[in-house]
Write a structure and sequence with these properties.
- The protein has about 325 residues and is mainly alpha-helical.
- Helices cover about 50% and strands about 10% of the residues.
- The strands form 4 sheets. The chain has a 3-stranded antiparallel β-sheet with strand order 2-1-3, covered by helices on one side. A two-stranded antiparallel ribbon has the order 4-5.
Length: about 325
Amino acid sequence: MLVGLPRFIATVETAKHRTFQFLDASIAPDNMLVCIASADAFHLGVLSSHIHVVWALAAGGRLGVGNDPRFNKSRCFEPFPFPAATPEQAARIRDLAEQLDAHRKRQQAAHESLTLTGMYNVLEKLKSGEALTAKEKAINEQGLVSVLKTLHDELDAAVLDAYGWSDLATRLADPALKEAAGETLLARLVALNAERAAEEARGEIRWLRPEYQHPAETPRQTAISIDATGRSKQDAASSDALPQIAILRAPWPAALPEQVAAVARVLAASPIPLSEADLATRFTGKGAWRKRLPQIVDTLEALGRVRRQGDVLTAAD
């Protein structure tokens, strides 16, 4: 099944939180994993979105003492209607999915005790606005769960856009409106599933992997391979060319997730590239916070949010 694939998508069959990730093709999955034979981050992105989670929770069963959701591949995956995304929309979803997969793996590699369940428990509390316990605050900092939340929010918006359902984005993000919006979303997915079934009855099939599933057919659109650091870049301006203007300095946040967000905001708002030394002048505070700045910049660069051009940094487009 995995011939020719460098990686594949997997999810735990029964789990409290429905998460998907890439596994290397050298890994032999056991019977507790549900595997999707695709190396395309577009598929990972759509499956990781709240849109697919709503479908999977409705279509799948429940199991165990905790009554945890069970992912039944024949019900949760095979009938699920993927969006007919444009090349630009698919590229955006791929980019975010790669960032999501890399972020979780990087933070878990840095902290042995950090688990996906722990990270997503905290993520749900952040979404609902609940207060975090001391243990959850530690998980939030180790896992940079605030960054995880941002990635999921942006991924959900990108997938909704690919379906043409951006009108649901605000309601799905509001805890008070989320349940009703989820019902509307599920109704739309069911209707789209019926449309796709009618298409297949007419002989029109939307292959997920046409080169493997139906090689005789010419794909209607070629998959785009996205490298987060390979986009076209403008020449960086020298930091010596900084205009002589007053620079507003913000207090350095106390918690790591807020520090990451603050650095990202400064770079995004800057009309010119900045060095790490320039970044440091944008904040006030005492202590050893400057030592953490290079680590934060490296994290943002790995996420594709920052581009490094020599000694200067710019926010990614």
